[in-house]
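Comment thread on ticket #2218

A.B. wrote:
> Attaching the input chain for the structure job we discussed in standup.
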Amino acid sequence: MKQKHIVMLSRTLPFHSMGGMQAIAWDLACQFAADGLKITVITTHIPNMPEHFFQNGVRWWR
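C.D. wrote:
> Ran it. Output below, let me know if you need it in another format.
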């Protein structure tokens, strides 16, 4: 069986600032990854971070 791949879009994450939407997007992505799903999050520019990186089992793209 093929591994499921979830792509999430979020305009802001805890890398940008901290708030409810940021925390929920972060928690969902990390939990899906912990559950063994392939997760990619696409977001806006993150200061001082590379264009894409892997953290907490999640692929982050800006």
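A.B. wrote:
> Thanks. Noting for the ticket: The longest helix spans residues 20-34.
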